[in-house]
């Protein structure tokens, strides 16, 4: 055998082995990388780090080796797409919240799936803040409407608050107060309408019997409030009433298992003065407290020794002096 023949017999097998080995080595290296990426993907998915997992998934999905784990990859992909949908729902709700569209935002936050705890917890936290801001804004708006005599609008705002939080003491008490004010306003309007006796003398009647004289200020004491009517007049069948109302309003009760407090105030509405000296005695759960102050519709606090518990009854006795005369009324309330 010649020297060249021997060389050929040695080289050719080596080349064949190299050609076969190169693809096999490349295949093995690619599979190792895929296994590493898939393991990382599985860990991120398990920890609900869906944003990072989804980015990694998009790279793995086009890989030749993804066919080896196609069932698991499809399950993870579907779950991550649902996660992205929940994330979009949270974003839409946040936009409504930032735009102060509180009621729409509260509904939108309900769409965030409980399945994804990180997004759901954020949605619940922002729901609480959104509800609090809506309630506060609505109560302030209702006070402005009531100050302008628009009790119907004020009541409508508070009714929406009560729908969201049916235990909000201040909203319920203000709604009750404005309903009474609206009722009295309607009574005044009815009194202004011409009646069959409008043309008759104020001191006489068709029978000639003299009507009893009314002493002013006239006091109406009803339902835990006092209405003081300064004067009433009739002119060509039209009645006018000038006066004001004093009401006791227990605002917010903070209920807990530990001693806490609630606040209250005296509300003056109508044509009367805003600054009157008051004496208020609160009786609650066997305790009593008396305070004297000048009203400006200011909030006052009562902190009993025992805990403030739901359903506990109390009373408030309000005394004040106006134009040398003493007035008193009581108001029952329940925490």
Note down, in words, how this protein is organized:
It is built from seven helices and nine strands. The protein has helices spanning 3-46, 50-61, 70-98, 102-109, 117-147, 151-164, 169-192, and strands at residues 218-222, 225-235, 238-253, 262-270, 277-284, 287-294, 300-302, 313-322, 325-334. The strands form two sheets. The protein has a five-stranded antiparallel β-sheet with strand order 1-2-3-4-7. A four-stranded antiparallel β-sheet has the order 6-5-8-9, with no helix packed on it. Strand 8 (313-322) and strand 9 (325-334) form a beta hairpin. The chain is elongated and about 105 Å long. The termini are far apart. Residues 14-29 and 198-209 have low confidence and may be disordered.
Please name the defining characteristics of this protein.
single chain; 335 residues; alpha+beta; five-stranded antiparallel beta sheet
List the SSEs and their pairings:
Blueprint: H1 3-46, H2 50-61, H3 70-98, H4 102-109, H5 117-147, H6 151-164, H7 169-192, E1 218-222, E2 225-235, E3 238-253, E4 262-270, E5 277-284, E6 287-294, E7 300-302, E8 313-322, E9 325-334
Antiparallel strand pairs: 1-2, 2-3, 3-4, 4-7, 5-6, 5-8, 8-9
Helix pairs in contact: 1-2, 2-3, 3-4, 3-5, 4-5, 5-6, 6-7
